[in-house]
Amino acid sequence: MNKSMRSKRKKKGAAVKSGAERSERKPSKPTAKKSAPQSERAPRSKPKSNGTTCREQQEPTNKNEKKTTSKGSKEFWSGEETAKKMVASGFFNNNTINGTFKDLPTTKPPLDSCPCFKNNLHKVRAPDCPIPDDKLIKLTHAPDNFICAARVTVPEFNRTIILTQVPDVSNSQNIEDFWRMIFQESVVSVVIAIMPLESSVTLQQIFPLLNGTYSNHGKMFLNNKKVESTVAMTAYTLEILPDGCSNSLLTTIYHLHNWKQKRALDRVEDLVATVEKVLKTNENTVFMSMNGTGRAGTMLALFTAMLQVQKGKEVNPKETMEKLRAERCGLVETAEQYGTVHKAMALWFKNKSTSEEIQKI
């Protein structure tokens, strides 16, 4: 027993001694560790020379965090109050929409008062919607070459707006004249609403569809610079250059390809997004459909309404349509197309507004 106790005491003493030795060595190690971080942190103290505190130096990080968390929320929209007033006034009431369309004027200029249009009926897709000579687009290089395209005045918009039909692709001169018009009028945005193979027309006959490809239509050279697609819209960026000209024009062609003639557009997301882009671009624009009146007129009506709201003005649907039809008869051919304008406006309001009232439309 005594021997075992003594051996235990010896072991315990050795353990205490080794522990004491380790405790004596500890101060040297932390000292070495602390000295290194002090030298690494030294550069951080330099900005203090401008009088800022550590908390002030951290503020930019906090601000960035706020920006990151706020990305999901909607930005302030200048049309918020106008949109609320329009909702309260019954702008989206179905009975009001249908009644307004029935009461719209259908007055058309006499064909005899549109001699140029009358003399080129073989090139016109909608002969019952004549265009007065003072509204027709005329080519400076060939004034006798007829294009079924009308210049339209839009209130509060100081750029050129043109409504046009799809050119008759059976005659190559018509396609050349179309692109000559785009170049002459410095058109930056062209919005086309036609179905694939509608009236046996393909866009490939009018311009190159693949990125990096080009085509020549008479003396007009077209180069496809970029192609971007969404669910129901494809955007083509084209470089347009006439022979003998060194300065080309870049134009974006937006093709809405799921919109049937004389019908409503079932899904309006891409329509709203496209018109928003055109508004933001704020440059000369062409709206085009097969006849240049129905879907083209519907897009113009939506463009005009969105423009007015952006400027803080309530939209009077009847008054707006009366003014537009005075510019180009036959715009918005059916009640379904007229309803598409309101459907698109409703979606646009919801996308922009944080109001619960507007979200219930």
From TrEMBL:
MF terms in GO: protein tyrosine phosphatase activity
Region (Disordered): 1-78
Matching InterPro entries: Prot-tyrosine_phosphatase-like (IPR029021), PTP_cat (IPR000242), Tyr_Pase_cat (IPR003595), Tyr_Pase_dom (IPR000387)
Residue ranges of domain Tyrosine-protein phosphatase in the record: 120-348
Residue intervals of the Tyrosine specific protein phosphatases domain: 269-339
Residues of the signal peptide: none
Domain of life from the UniProt record: Eukaryota
Pfam families: Y_phosphatase
UniProt protein name: Tyrosine-protein phosphatase domain-containing protein
Organism for this UniProt entry: Caenorhabditis nigoni
Species lineage: Eukaryota, Metazoa, Ecdysozoa, Nematoda, Chromadorea
